[in-house]
Write a structure and sequence with these properties.
It is built from six helices and eleven strands. It has a single domain, classed as Rossmann fold (3-Layer(aba) Sandwich), CATH 3.40.50.880. The chain is an alpha/beta fold.
């Protein structure tokens, strides 16, 4: 278990891609990772989200809201998964303010020791903060190539792209390659 003592946070919301989330749920702990699924709980002790394809339920008990900088720095990686998770998480009551999930990922990007993983449509979460990926090589789902380019990112036609503390992957179907890359990078640190 070469990643014993490492902690990974995966953002979660409704319409998640079950195969990806269930893969992470088993694969990261297999390496010794302490895995946390984080969401916006809207003041509730937990929320149950339904998956996209099979409507499989997933209960989340942890929130990224009000997470201190110290706690954020305790994570080795923060992952924005594929599917509609990022679209749902980018909702905000006040359109003059960043959505809480976008503000959270912006804070994660400020921490160079925290690896950021964004897969497939996860890049949507960064739409209001394009400076985070401007000038950086990334890959996204084919449907988001124009979005990535409009954000100033350098679209790279590969299944997984690494740029320092940022790992991106094309689709949820590439989650095994994405997870492998994150595991290998964390093992090197």
């Amino acid at each position: 278990m070469r990643l014993q003592g490492k902690k990974i946070g995966v953002l979660i919301e409704g319409d998640f891609y079950e195969k990806e989330i269930f893969y992470y749920e088993h694969r990261f702990p297999e390496e010794g990772v302490e895995l946390h699924f984080l969401s916006r709980l809207w003041g509730q002790p937990s929320l149950t989200f339904l998956g996209h394809e099979y409507r499989a339920p997933f209960v989340c008990f942890e929130s990224f809201e009000n997470m201190s900088d110290e706690e954020l720095r305790s994570y080795s990686a923060i992952i924005v998964p594929s599917g509609m998770v990022s679209d749902r998480l980018r909702y905000t009551d006040d359109v003059t303010k960043l959505p809480p999930a976008t503000a959270f990922i912006q804070r994660a990007f400020a921490e160079k020791d925290v690896l950021k993983g964004i897969i497939c449509h996860g890049m949507w979460l960064l739409a209001l903060v394009p400076e985070l990926v401007r000038g950086r090589p990334v890959v996204v789902h084919n449907n988001l190539v124009g979005d990535a380019r409009n954000m100033g990112a350098i679209y790279t036609d590969q299944d997984v792209v690494v740029d320092g503390d940022l790992v991106t992957a094309r689709t949820g179907g590439h989650c095994h390659q994405f997870a492998r890359q994150i595991i290998d990078l964390l093992a090197e640190r």
